[in-house]
Specification:
The chain is of the alpha/beta class. It has 2 domains: 56 residues, no CATH class; 125 residues, Oxidized Rhodanese, domain 1. It has 8 helices and 9 strands. Strands 3-9-8-4-5 form a 5-stranded parallel β-sheet, with helices on both faces. A two-stranded antiparallel sheet has the order 1-2. Strand 1 and strand 2 form a beta hairpin. The longest helix is centred in the first third of the chain and has 13 residues. The termini are far apart.
């Protein structure tokens, strides 16, 4: 009962005055690199006629031959290691709707929020979610050979140093961290590194589905 009440409270906070079922279709209007971007779930008209049935969704190659090509996406499915739904009891796992809501906050208060793509630059430069910043998982912890990487990371996440040289996270951003998909461990490594650094767990959120779920749901992507 307590768990149900907690979920209800969280839902009311996240989605106050917002119809959760339609939010994915109404989308988010934003400015990305001085250009207007409309982040929404793109669905071809033909896809609206496709019945959600076992035959259509799992017809051999996960979609029946009768389903129009514009309604399908091909994904590599047998790579990586599937991650658990939670990696820490204090770190919340989020999905696409929560990321959309987060992007609304981020647009107006970028000094408080960060959508972190934890993959290596060659992946990030290929495709990512609008407004994401690239902080590779390998650049978070100190590396005496590349000290500039951590300095950049600290700047992007608004981590300060006090007069004694100790890291100060009081103004650190709330961050959603993601990578390629639920089989990708790079976002997990990034979160583990942030926690090891001292980053408050309550300020970290994990988008487990990552780019594969984002694309699979038909949402807008960009090439930085």
């Amino acid at each position: 009962m307590k768990f149900f009440i907690l979920i209800s409270i969280l839902s009311s906070i996240l989605f106050a005055n917002e119809d959760v079922k339609t939010f994915q279709f109404t989308g988010v209007e934003t400015i990305y690199k001085d250009k207007e971007v409309y982040i929404k779930r793109l669905r071809h008209p033909n896809c609206r006629k496709v019945g959600i049935t076992p035959e259509n969704m799992f017809g051999g190659n996960l979609a029946a031959k009768s389903v129009p090509e514009e309604c399908k996406k091909n994904f590599v499915t047998t790579v990586g290691v599937i991650q658990p739904i939670k990696i820490d009891d204090e770190i919340e796992t989020v999905g696409e709707i929560e990321v959309l809501k987060f992007l609304e906050f981020l647009e107006f208060e970028p000094e408080k929020y960060a959508l972190v793509d934890a993959r290596k630059p060659k992946w990030y430069e290929k495709i990512t979610i609008p407004h994401s910043i690239n902080i590779p998982f390998s650049d978070i912890l100190p590396d005496e050979d590349f000290p500039e990487d951590q300095v950049k990371m600290m700047t992007l996440l608004n981590i300060q140093k006090d007069k004694n040289g100790k890291l100060d996270f009081s103004q650190a951003k709330e961050a959603i961290v993601f990578c390629n998909g639920n089989w990708c461990v790079q976002s997990v490594w990034a979160i583990e590194a942030l926690v090891k650094l001292g980053y408050p767990k309550k300020k970290i959120f994990w988008y487990r589905g990552g780019l594969q779920d984002w694309l699979g749901s038909g949402f807008t992507t960009v090439k930085p």
